[in-house]
Design goal:
By secondary structure, the protein is an alpha/beta fold. The protein contains 9 helices and 11 strands. The chain folds into 2 domains: 115 residues, no CATH class; 129 residues, no CATH class. The longest helix is centred in the C-terminal third of the chain and has 12 residues. The chain is elongated and about 60 Å long. It starts with 5 loop residues before the first strand and ends with a helix.
Length: 266
């Protein structure tokens, strides 16, 4: 019999069978893609990070998505815990939004994360079919006019074949507490993330160690979890030294960042 445990993880993208019918507190943003990952893992309930909410409420898009599947979901206020760090969410996070399914189980705005998670344990488990997620990894520029630009709605979708491309990820700019480096991911020409409403953008200095230009775009300018929006709408809020060496400046667009890399790689 399932004991309805509370799991604490840094990212929703690596959930395994242990998440089945359980409640998860994950350091991921609360966008739709994160909701899709949670639903695919068949969780009973999920608590995520509101990532500053941002453009078109993208940082909390998972709430309505999961409501449609009758899965309890809530997000914590970005000012109360560090994104990418599940333990931070669990220990200091305060709930900023809940969906209707979670509210029926006693979850409410202002609760501590663990209080909310314990309420979710009472939520009815639902296993409705999870809708197919629209393509989350795609080509934005095919290289016919210079460099290849790849869109990834999550940095977890970056693959070895992306070496020597620019990757437009819609993930937050903070490294995971449990995996604080770029790791074995490929040597890309540049990378873009979302600042999730924070000045905590440790992915940027990490990529500096590899000489990779990297920036974040403001959450108010582009939808977190949406690489197309990140490319088309993003306004740079932070840049690393490698990007600054290419004359990349705060206030530039993502497209201008890509053009600076294109200019310097030809």
């Amino acid at each position: 019999m399932n004991k309805r445990e509370i799991l604490i993880v840094d990212t929703v993208t690596k959930l395994g069978p242990e998440a089945y019918k359980n409640v998860v507190i994950a350091g991921s943003h609360g966008g739709v893609y994160a909701g899709f990952e949670a639903a695919t893992a068949r969780v009973r309930g999920i608590i995520l990070h509101d990532a500053g909410v941002g453009l078109d409420n993208a940082g909390i898009g998972s709430l309505s998505y999961l409501d449609n599947l009758e899965i309890a979901a809530a997000v914590i206020d970005y000012r109360t815990a560090v994104i990418g760090n599940g333990q931070s969410l669990a220990s200091s996070g305060r709930i900023s939004f809940v969906n209707d399914t979670a509210a029926k189980s006693g979850c409410s705005v202002g609760q501590a994360s663990m209080e909310c998670a314990n309420a979710m344990k009472l939520s009815t488990f639902n296993s409705k079919p999870v809708p197919v997620y629209e393509e989350a990894r795609f080509i934005i520029r095919d290289g016919s006019d210079g460099i290849i630009v790849r869109g990834c709605d999550s940095v977890s979708l970056v693959k070895e074949e992306d070496e020597d491309t620019v990757v437009i990820t819609a993930s937050h700019g903070e490294v995971l507490a449990s995996s604080p480096t770029w790791g074995s991911r490929p040597s890309v020409l540049g990378a873009v993330f979302n600042d999730a409403g924070s000045n905590l953008v440790s992915r940027l200095p990490d990529l500096d160690k590899l000489g990779i230009p990297a920036v974040t775009v403001s959450c108010s300018s582009a939808k977190i979890g949406d690489a197309r929006s990140t490319y088309n709408d993003g306004i740079i809020s932070h840049s690393n030294k490698s990007a600054k060496n290419l004359n990349v400046k705060v206030g530039m667009t993502t497209i201008e960042f890509v053009e600076q890399i294109n200019k310097n790689s030809s």
